[in-house]
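agent> fetching stored inputs for the zinc ion docking request
agent> found them:
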Amino acid sequence: MGDRETVAYVALSHAAYSFDGEYSYLVPERYRQVLKAGMRVLVSFGRGNNRVIGLVTRLGYDDDNKHKLKPVISVIDKESLVTDEMMKIIFWLKENTFCTYYDAFKSAVPTGFSYKVDMHFALVNTYIDRESLSTEEAEIVGFLESCDDAAEVDKYFDLKANPQRKKPLDTLIDKGFVEEVPSFKRKVGDDSVKMAVLNDGYEDADLTPKQKKVVELLEESGSASVKELCYMTGCTSTIIKRLCEKEVLRVYEQEVLRNAVGELGDRESPEDIVLNDEQKMAYNGIMSLIRAGKPAGALLYGVTGSGKTSVFIRVIDSVVKMGKTAIMLVPEISLTPQMLARFKVLFGENIALLHSSLSLGQRMDEFKRIKRGEARIIIGTRSAVFAPAENIGVIIMDEEGEQSYKSDSNPRYHARDVAIQRCGHNGALLLMASATPSLETFYHAQKGRFHLFTLAHRYSDAALPKVEIIDMQTESAEGNDSLISRKLADKLTETLKRDEQAILLLNRRGFTTYVSCASCRQPVVCPKCNIPLTYHKKNDRFMCHYCGYTMDNLAVCPSCGSDKLRSSGVGTQRVEDELARIYPDARILRMDADTTSSRYAYEEKFKAFENHEYDIMLGTQMIAKGLNFPNVTLVGVISLDKALFTGDFRSYERTFSLLTQVAGRSGRGSKPGSAYIQTFVPDHYVLNLAAEQNYDEFYAEEIALRQSLIYPPCCDICVIGFSAVMESRAIAAADHVTAFIAEYLRKNKADFPLRAIGPAPCTLEVINGRFRYRLILKSKNTRCFRQMIAAVLKDFGDNKDFKEVRIYADINGDIGL
Ligand code: ADP
Ligand code: ZN
Ligand code: ZN
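agent> prediction call returned; pasting C-alpha cells
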C-alpha cells in the first residue's frame, strides 16, 4: 500500500491571509481510497487542537515526516466539489486577488447545505489495545461498544454538559480509536417565499453573535430564503426581524419555482434564426476560433440593436452540438428577463442558471446539474464564471464593460480575468460583446491581442436615434424651474399622442438627493457618514444610502434651528410627481431599487411595460441597458451630471456608456427614435460624443487621457485601502504600509516601475463611523509586484499594533469612493 498518497495538503477555512497556506496532514489508512483533492475534511489546528474544516488542495507523499503529522479527522464530502481545472483557478485567485485559498474555494462553490455541522462520535473498526487506555478512555470505549442509540451517544458526548470527556475523547481520536463523524444537515424544501439580502453598508452595524452568523451566511451566499437562514444558522425568525429593523438586511417576497429555469413554453429551434450578412461574418469568424480549440479572446463590437444576442444564440447552439459547454455571463440577471425567456424557448433544460436571487437549494441543484453534465449552457452573473463546467467551448460576456463584473469584496476578482484563465485551461474562446466596450478591451482589440468583429448596423436597418443636448442653465434663466425642459415636455406630449412609449433616466433614487438649510447652507447629513441624507417620500424619512441609517423627517435645521429647509437634487419620486402633474392621463412606471427588490418584480414590470400597460418608464441606471421595447421612440435623460464627476478615472467611460446605451433604447423597432439629454454642462465633450454615439472618437480621446495621466490600460492600478474607527489609526496604518513598501523595494532591489499616490483620505472619508484612507499604486501587474502586495498584507496581518484597522488590496478596481 506504500504507493498510495499519504499526506493531504489542507487549506483551512478560518485562516486569515497572513497564515493562510497548505498545511500537511496524515491521511489515515481508512481514507486513502476515498480522499481526493477538492474534498473538504475536518482537521485539528493550533494549540487548542480546535476542529476546523479545510479544503484538500493536493495529495502527496511525505514518508519522512508522516509520523509527525496530525491525522485528517474525517472526510466531509462524498465527492470532490472542485474539478482539477477549478483547483487551478483557486490557486490563481489566491495569487491574483490576495484572498485565502478557502475564500477562493467558497466563491467557486455555492454555499450549500454543509453550513450546519453536527459532530458525532463512533468507534473505529480496529483492534484496540485496552492496556494502553486510561480509565476515562476505557470508559468511553466501553460506552460506545454498548450503546447503539445515536441520540444517546450524542447526549453522552455533549461536551458542554460533560466537559470532562473532552480530553480523553481527543486522545482516543488522536490514537485512531474513535472517529468524528460530522453530519451536514440538508436544507429544507424550497417552499419558502421570503428572501433576505444584505443592505449596503451592513458591514459596520453592531451585531450579536447570532446576528453575525446570519450576516456571514448572507455574505457568502448573496441571498437566501429566511427559512434557510434560520435553519442553517440555528436562529429564530425574530433575529431576522431584528436585523431587518436595524436595516442590516431586507426581506422580500419571491415566487417559488420548481427549478431555477422555470416553466418551459413552446420550443423553437436556434437554427431558425437567420443571420444577416454582418452577423454571419461575425458568427463564422467566431466559430473558426472556437473550432481551432486554442485559447483566444474576441470582441463583438456591435451598435445597440445590431442583434448581438442572435449571434450568441447561434454560437452557443453550435458549441453545444460540438459536444462542448458554453457559459454566458450577463451583468445583472434582473435586467435580462427578455433574454432569458428567449433562451428558455430555444434551449430548454439544457440551461442552468446561476445567480444570487436563487435560493441556496436551487443554486446547489444547478451546480450539480452542471457538474454532472446535464446542463451544458450556463447563464449567470459574475460568479457563474466559476461554473463547474468541463470542456468549455466559449465563455460569452455580454456588456463586458459593466462594473458588476468586478467584485469589490473578497475575493476581488474581475470575471474577465477569471474567464481568460478558464479559456486558457479549456482551449476556449472568450467572447466579449458591447456597443461601448471597456477601454481595456478595446485597447487590446486594437493591439491585436483580441480578435475584433464589428456589427456596424442595427438589425432592422433602423437609424440610430437622433440625440440632442438640452442646456438646463438656459431653461432656468428663461424662467422654467421644472425638472423637465420645455423641449422634452413637448416631445413627451407628441410621443404620448402617437401612442408610443418613452423611457426617462436619472441617476438617483429617492425623492430628492438632499435637503439643505437656506439660512446656514448646511445639508442634512448622516451622523455616521457625514454624507447628505436622501429624503424618501414613501415613508417620510431620511435615509443614508451608504450605511442604511434612517431618521424622521425634520421641521427645522439640525445645525442652526432655522425652518428654511429646502430640497435640492432630483430623485425618481419627485420626477414622478412632476410628470403626474404635467401628464395626468399618462400611465407612469417607476423602476428603482425601492420599487423592485426582487427579480420577479422586475420581470412583471418590464412585461407590463412591453404590453403597453404603461406609457412612460422612469428609472435609474437599471433601465438603461439591454432592454428591447420596439414601441419606445423617446428617451429622456433628466439628469446625469453627477456621474461625470465621481472622482473615479472610469467616470467618463461609464457616463459615455450609460448615455449611449440609454439612447440606444429608442427607435429599436420600425419607428424612428430620438433622445434628449438634459445637463448643466452642455459643452462637455463626453456628452457630445455620447450624443453622436461616436464610440471610436470617445475611445481616441479617452485613451489619450489615460496615456497622459497613466491609468489602465496603460498601467495597472492597485488600491490599498484602510479603515478604522479612529482616524489616527487609519492614518498610522497607511503610513506604516507606505514605509514598508519603500523598505521592501530597497531590500529586494526591486527595479519595477512603481508610482505611489497618497496615502490620502478616500472620496467618502467616513462610512458608518469608520475613517477611510487609501494608497494608490501604479505599476505593472507582474508576479514581482503581486509578491510585494502579498508581503504587505502578511506583514500587516501579523502586526498587533493594527488589529483594529481593516486593510484590503484591489487591483484594477474602482478608486472612486
Ligand atoms: P443588441 O443586443 O445588439 O442591442 P438585440 O440582440 O437586442 O440587439 O437585437 C435587436 C433586435 O433585432 C431584436 O428585436 C432582435 O429580435 C432583432 N434581431 C436581431 N438579429 C436578428 C435575426 N437574425 N433575426 C431576427 N431578428 C433579429
Ligand atoms: Zn441651518
Ligand atoms: Zn450613513
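agent> quick read of the result: The pocket of zinc ion (ligand 2) is lined by residues 517, 519-520, 522, 557, 559-560, 562 (CB under 6 Å).
agent> awaiting further instructions
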